[in-house]
Write a structure and sequence with these properties.
The protein is α+β, with helices and mostly antiparallel strands. The chain folds into 2 domains: 8-200 and 270-276, Roll (C8orf32 fold); 345-624, no CATH class. Helices cover 69% and strands 6% of the residues. The protein has 18 helices and 9 strands. The strands form 3 sheets. The chain has a 5-stranded antiparallel β-sheet with strand order 8-5-4-3-9. A two-stranded parallel ribbon has the order 1-2. The chain has a two-stranded antiparallel sheet with strand order 6-7. A hairpin with a 2-residue loop joins strand 4 and strand 5. Helix 2 crosses helix 6 (97-110), helix 3 runs antiparallel to helix 6 (97-110) and helix 17 (484-546) runs antiparallel to helix 18.
């Protein structure tokens, strides 16, 4: 078949740059090829001591995925087409998807297994949900194992393409270390992935869909439009279908030659996707060429005129269909270009939104840190002052207070007023002490109630940060804003950040501000208590100066002093709890700043990754378009050549007559 599929694995392999599978179950892949192009001997060596269809097929899959490199240079040079791509892959150790599939099929058949190469549509990094498929660009295989047909993609199982000396890989290895981004040349990396051997057909069609729909291997054939809609639509459709991996039709198709397969499935492929008229053009051309060869080889053929006329019509129709396919190319690639621009715009908008929100959060955190540090400094100063005053009062007594010259007689108005003021202040101090105790309880309860809110906030922040990192990793793996892999994390991130973290942060700051106000009220109450007792201590000293003969004054003074000292202790304890709370929140706000700064850095890497992806996608679109135009021209030239041969055959026929 003409090379309509060869560029597919570029996107397919890039899209699978981080499959997450290790080197396992791959021992048969270590068989050395000391047999050259003797594929029979190689197949026997690979499948030696492998019992059963599955073991044989798996050993061949492992060998191909470990020994055939993806031919990256093919993507740029478009070399001369090779008829037997399986043998070429065996000879050179390099291939694109057709070489992988045909080599796998050849080795399976050598091992006594039925197998067939299948062309189809695959979701590479260019594909976005809702994009339309035109021509199939990928090829994989089916192998019959224990009576059931199984699907195998050795290309995707072999490894991935990466940007040589890519900053992406270095930044991941160095935990987001800053590195300048420049698009590099693509290279292939072996990265064995066992999931593409005998994968469940319904899971397989999340990323693959055959152009001949019967190779979906299900009883209900999924329309191309469902495949184009994306994973959610496919999964929903899978709920109404069942596997159908056996049948005489499948067996008979697997036994056909390439040309026979074209005759058999061309009409089905076009009915399945009417944006693929070139498959009918190839069928018409094959038929016409066959007629020409038949007429040229057998002079005794009857109805030659009719046959040549049919062949001529076939070739003319083939040219029209080739022309129809070419007309679709501008639409196809303009849509890809528009999508590429839209994805870049979407990514930039997301980056701007995250950066703006994080900068806002950094500003809020900085202000709260500044206020908290100022309050902490003030609280520590107050604590030192209260402690110093307490020390001074603890050492105070009335022994050193001497009567002044203005002694008052018992019952004097000044003494009565002094005693009344002491009594009133004691009452106020007792009341204020109870108020302070209530305010202290309120502050502690507010802190306690905010603990669960803080716990939820911390979990949300850590989760949000982790989700953003996952999205960044997907973007570094060449996924974009329209891909399920990115949308999954992006949707969760937005929900977590803007509905979760931001909401929790709003409520936590309200609670935090309420706690600070509660402590302000508490400290005001503590100051009132200490102020009342402090004034009474001074009043007792004045009382002794005026009436040194009052015998109970020392006892009253000591009681007041103890109350004062206890009030100071309570105040200092509250200040300690307060500064500890401020310390914790200074740490919290600093952590918020660091996380926000890290998120800005992460989305910066995402922005660079998006720029790299867009550049690669732009180049890939241009290469694919050039390839399609070239292949279209080649096919047109082949048909025109066939028309010339047909004219020659008609000319010779007339001479013979």
């Amino acid at each position: 078949m003409l090379r309509l599929l060869t560029l597919s694995a570029l996107g397919a392999l890039i899209a699978l740059s981080f499959p997450g599978y290790g080197q396992s179950d791959t021992l048969p892949g270590l068989v050395r090829n000391s047999y050259g192009t003797d594929h029979y001997a190689l197949s026997a060596a690979i499948s030696f001591d492998q019992h059963g269809d599955r073991a044989k097929a798996k050993s061949i899959y492992n060998w191909v995925t470990h020994n055939i490199k993806y031919d990256v240079t093919f993507l740029q040079k478009f070399p001369k087409p090779i008829e037997d791509k399986g043998m070429q892959a065996l000879k050179t150790g390099r291939a694109v998807c057709e070489g992988y599939s045909e080599l796998f099929v050849m080795l399976c058949r050598d091992a006594g297994l039925q197998a067939i190469a299948i062309e189809g549509y695959s979701k590479d990094f260019l594909f976005n949900n809702g994009d339309r498929f035109y021509m199939p660009r990928h090829e994989w295989a089916a192998v019959k194992i224990d009576g059931k047909w199984e699907l195998v993609d050795a290309t995707w199982g072999a490894g991935s393409l990466y940007q040589h000396r890519s900053w992406l890989r270095k930044s991941v290895d160095k935990v987001f270390h800053i590195h300048k981004v420049r698009p590099r040349s693509l290279r292939f990396r072996y990265l064995y992935d066992p999931q593409y051997f005998a994968q469940d057909p319904e899971l397989f069609r999340l990323r693959h869909l055959p152009s001949d729909p019967i190779w979906q291997l299900t009883d209900t054939l999924m329309p191309l439009s469902v495949f184009e809609a994306g994973a959610t639509a496919i999964t929903t459709f899978n709920g109404i279908s069942k596997l159908k991996q056996t049948g005489a039709t499948l067996d008979s198709i697997a036994a056909m030659t390439k040309q026979e397969k074209i005759y058999d499935f061309a009409d089905r492929a076009y009915a399945f996707n009417n944006r693929y008229p070139v498959i009918l053009a190839i069928k018409d051309m094959y038929h016409a060429v066959g007629v020409v060869k038949q007429v040229a080889a057998d002079s005794g053929v009857s109805n030659v005129d009719t046959m040549l006329k049919v062949a001529t019509n076939d070739l003319k129709r083939s040219l029209e269909r080739i022309k129809d396919q070419r007309k679709m190319l501008p639409e196809q690639y303009n849509n890809l270009k528009r999508s590429n621009r839209a994805k870049s715009t979407d990514a930039k908008q997301q980056v701007r939104t995250v950066v703006a929100d994080d900068k806002r959060l950094i500003g809020v955190s900085s202000r709260y840190i500044q206020v908290a540090e100022s309050r902490k400094k003030k609280a520590l100063g107050t604590s030192n002052d209260v402690t110093a005053d307490r020390k001074a009062v603890a050492a105070a007594n009335l022994a050193g207070v001497e009567a002044s010259g203005g002694l008052k007689k018992e019952g004097a108005r000044e003494l009565e007023e002094l005693r009344d003021s002491i009594r009133v202040r004691n009452l106020h101090a007792e009341t204020d002490s109870r108020i302070a105790a209530a305010k202290n309880l309120k502050a502690k309860l507010l802190i306690l109630s905010s603990t669960s809110l803080l716990d939820s906030l911390m979990k949300s922040i850590v989760g949000e940060d982790s989700i953003l990192r996952n999205e960044a990793m997907e973007r570094m793996g060449m996924h974009d804003s329209y891909d399920d892999e990115v949308q999954k994390w992006n949707t969760v991130f937005k929900d977590q950040k803007y509905k979760g973290t931001d909401t929790l942060m709003k409520y936590y700051l309200l609670a935090y501000d309420s706690i600070l106000l509660a402590y302000d009220d508490l400290f005001a109450a503590r100051q009132l208590v200490i102020g009342s007792y402090d004034k009474n201590i001074a009043a007792y000293q004045q009382y002794k100066k005026w009436n040194a003969g009052y015998s109970g004054i020392n006892e009253d003074f000591l009681i007041t002093r103890e109350h004062y000292l206890a009030a100071c202790d309570s105040y200092v304890a509250d200040l300690a709890t307060y500064t500890e709370y401020l310390d914790g929140n200074i740490g919290l706000f600093n952590m918020l700043k660091k996380i926000s700064e890290r998120q800005i850095k992460i989305v910066g890497y995402m922005e660079k990754a998006e720029k790299s992806r867009a550049d690669i996608e732009t180049g890939s679109i241009a290469r694919k378009k050039a390839f399609d135009l070239k292949e279209n021209d080649k096919l047109k030239a082949n048909v025109q050549k066939a028309l010339k041969e047909l004219k020659k055959a008609s000319k010779y026929k007339r001479k013979d007559d």
